[in-house]
Amino acid sequence: MRAGPSQEEIRRHNLGALLRHVHLGGPTSRAELTSRMGLNRSTIMALTADLTAAGLVREELPRETGRAGRPSLVVRPESARVYVFALDVGVDRLVAARVGLGGTILDRREAVRRRGPFSLEEIVGPLAGFARQMHRKTRPDTVCVGVAAAFSGGVGRADGVIRFGPNMHSVDVPLAEEMARKLALGLPVTVGNDANLAALAEHTRGVGVGCRDLIYLHGDVGIGGGVIVNGQLLGGHAGFGGEVGHMIVNPKGRLCGCGSLGCLEAEAGERAVLEAAGRSGTHQLGRDAVRDVVDAADRGDIVAQAALSRVGDWLGLGVANLVNVFNPEMVIFGGMLREVYLGSAAQVRSRLAVDALPPSRDGLRLRTSALGDDATLVGAAELAFAQVLADPLEVLARAGS
Amino acid sequence: MRAGPSQEEIRRHNLGALLRHVHLGGPTSRAELTSRMGLNRSTIMALTADLTAAGLVREELPRETGRAGRPSLVVRPESARVYVFALDVGVDRLVAARVGLGGTILDRREAVRRRGPFSLEEIVGPLAGFARQMHRKTRPDTVCVGVAAAFSGGVGRADGVIRFGPNMHSVDVPLAEEMARKLALGLPVTVGNDANLAALAEHTRGVGVGCRDLIYLHGDVGIGGGVIVNGQLLGGHAGFGGEVGHMIVNPKGRLCGCGSLGCLEAEAGERAVLEAAGRSGTHQLGRDAVRDVVDAADRGDIVAQAALSRVGDWLGLGVANLVNVFNPEMVIFGGMLREVYLGSAAQVRSRLAVDALPPSRDGLRLRTSALGDDATLVGAAELAFAQVLADPLEVLARAGS
């Protein structure tokens, strides 16, 4: 149990808080920062001066104020100068983006991935190549302050080693270490679970802004989850928290990739949808295939409707369980679960009405992802920015050296 | 997003932190406080002087140091002078205790409750009577700084109103308000869910000390839960988080009191144990009845063994689900689930081995409650002390006035 912070710690905290303000909220006037942060004007001025000197923000006159008197200067993040690399290792694609402070995607590269077993090189090679291409195009005065990757599987928080994932036949793959070596930017790489990062993204920049307790459900080949508890991402003891896809909802049910029977993923994942709709094997896989089922149901296809009803029933039961356990304010459906939810909302809601405790579901909002397919990438960018927001000057000094 | 604290806020924070140290850790030397809190000696001296003047701690020479030189003064909580009332509204009993700063139970009263529907008066009347009896026995210089109650059901965080509970046929019972009125101590009453408070107790003073992520499962008539996430109690949006007993594990299973089929509570609660053992109806209920089943199984009774095996299987599945969702460091079995777990540990562990993801259960410890039947009461006391630990001088000034 440590006690209160020193003057230097307070300054560092305040610098981070101010930078986070403009990073998440966009250009903000000094007057607004003063009132929102509860600090006096001279402190805000001093903090802004420090951040400006470090090249993290700049101050300028607002375009128009519409008010009389001297306008308050606007503090804006140096989006073009300070950036991170955000990487997304999805089941069907690899994405790399250069994201400026403030969250602007400045540049991006994407490659389609064939599903199936992969080697570490097949991931790291293309992503490092993309990053190098984008890095070459930057001006000399830009500075990269972090790198983070989203991975669709289990990643240890301490070491960025992959412990499990779809189509991953080897275990203990050192993704973070190998990525950092290959990028050779002199920066460590942080790796997070894709659904966790998407949850973080929706919480900070998406449909969940302002919600302190939310659950994000991500449908890919499997079902992943990210849970925000009291404003913080649920990590658990070693970073594997939120694997809601492996909550067993039907113990006599379908075999899951993890070896158990009746996991939420086995009953409401992509394969369950396509098989229930009689579209496995001969048909295509992936999001488009799921969307086809939902479209067919919309057009009155009885088999597709029955499939969505069945899958929606299990999805609803899973959500009800999570609502009882977490009492969240919002549940967000992302990835292919967005389609499934839109095609089975009535079923999901009716399960919730039966199986969630009334006080636990009171006021609950069910929503679809606002950031769509970019949620994981946006989350990876936020993870990459975490260090500079925690200690702006220290990170910048290191990056510039 | 607020910025760093003011000098006054830091002082308040430090006073609370120091008081929490001696409240949880017992008498501590100034030298130890200096090193543990990361503050310098003169700050510790000043803080201790403030807390001593307020009558919250006192300083004394240690009995023996075994070392040469001037011994460091020991700071100890004023356990006999500063106290709270902790109340426990269990299914089978009502308990009231006067608990001194530092966690010492100074006095307690207990009454057996008959199961069945209850009126608010049947709870509030006896508890207020107990509190008055204990209050009359205190010396004039003592001061009560808080009151909190544990209730075996759902309680809204904001208002202390009971929304659901076993044997509760009315809803929206204003327990906190009515209790405060009847006690007439001029203090508000905080009410929390019993399993949540037991989790808090095991986390701060029991088997879970030092664990930042743990799940406490409490068996009573039903099954309740309390979850500690990154050192904080999971409350959820409105305080109903942790209702793990209503996670559905067997959707074609037994009818639960909540109206759903196959909740963990329905499959592994008291009634499930007794019915599986052929002991419902004619036999006694409660903890003793469950213990009889476990004892019988120990002595080789095949029916009792089969019952525990069946119940342990569902309990294991429920725990596996929670392990996948939370990746906790520890799961604690309390109340009658302590007995059930001890009688079915092999079954629970084998379910975990099959149904929990290997990285999520890696390093997991399964434990029984260290505080036993007093866990809820100890948790209620901690809830009652929360205010004075957050702002020692303010609370004391109010209580003394």
UniProtKB/TrEMBL annotation, chains A, B:
Coiled-coil ranges per UniProt: none
Stated family: Belongs to the ROK (NagC/XylR) family.
Keywords: Kinase, Transferase
Stated name of the protein: NBD/HSP70 family sugar kinase
Example GO molecular function: kinase activity
Source superkingdom: Bacteria
Pfam family, one: ROK
